[in-house]
Design brief:
The chain is an alpha+beta fold. It is built from 3 helices and 3 strands. It starts with 5 loop residues before the first strand and ends with a helix.
Length: 111
Amino acid sequence: MLRGEVTVSRGQPPHAAELARLGPGEMFGEIALITREPTTASVTASEHGAAVLFLSRDYFDRLMQAVPELHSYLQRLSEDRLMDLRISAASYEAIRDDEDDADAIEVDVLL
């Protein structure tokens, strides 16, 4: 991010879960570049005038080969973010299960 703010979310509205808000100096998309897997989140500018710097896969790969310290940093960052995603997904499922249980209780009471 060069300027502004973006929201990283997963899922479809209105049930999209916000994963993060990122601002200047932060990055996104590194997980897909490192794992070579499709992206699993959406990034939306939170304000008008947000600006990002785009780095193609080819240049990303070259940069990772040329700067091993950067490669190590991005590898750790992506592992941390993937762990956060797993934790938030488990929390989200637990909340949904609780809501489903509450709905079932309400239905039982109404019947």
